[in-house]
Amino acid sequence: MAILNTCCGCCNVRTGSMVTAVVMLIVCGIDLGARFGYTMYEPTATYTGVVLDGIFALLCIFLIVGVAVNNRYMCLAWVVAAIVYLVLDMLLCIVTTVMMLVAAKTAMDDFDTITATLATPLDNDLATSAFNLTIAMTIATVWVVFVVVAGINIYCILVVYSYYQNLRDTEEADDQPS
Predict the structure, then answer these.
(1) Could you read off the pLDDT of 126-158 as tens digits, one per residue?
(2) H or E stretch including 16?
(3) How far apart are CA 13 and CA 25, in angstroms?
(4) Which one of 1, 95, 99, 163 has the minimum C-beta count within 10 Å?
């Protein structure tokens, strides 16, 4: 029995799975474009993201084909890949948070060294508070975006998995003797 019977309450899970595949393919394309359009200081991160987006885009194409020909295994492959992609995305957010906290500590140490050499002293408490607020808001933004995107991805995974369950149940019913 499927987890969901409809997608967004307005269409069946087969249509929802097709929409999921197309939307995720577009998102992968946008993400790939952003990665190529934005030069990072660490090319390894860019290449890793390109490879992951490329693999996920290929699996989105598999999902489109799987839905078109009612192939449950292609749908299941997308579900597994989407879960792995979601976990990797969460790990990326954790790494980003840790890197920002380490960079903030280093930057504050450098800031204290620089301000100590100035002829006119700065209000270190005010500067420290502003800097900490900026770091906290940036980290919060990263996590809010992740939670929103993860929620949408989890719903899409449930839609595609429900379609997979419908296909499985149909195949099992066809295999039953009359």
Answers:
(1) 667 777 788 888 889 889 988 998 999 999 999
(2) helix 13-37
(3) 18
(4) 1
Instruction: Phi first, then psi: give them for residue 12, nearest 5 degrees.
Output: -75, 165
Total Cβ atoms within 10 A of residue 83 = 14
Secondary structure string (H, E, C) spanning 117-169:
CCCCCCCHHHHHHHHHHHHHHHHHHHHHHHHHHHHHHHHHHHHHHHHHHHHHH
Instruction: Name every residue whose Cβ is closer than 8 Å to that of residue 149 and which is 6 or more positions away in sequence.
Output: 89
Phi, psi (rounded to 5 degrees) for 114: -70, -45
Whole-model pTM: value is 0.79
Tokens of 37: 């359009």
Amino acid at 157: I
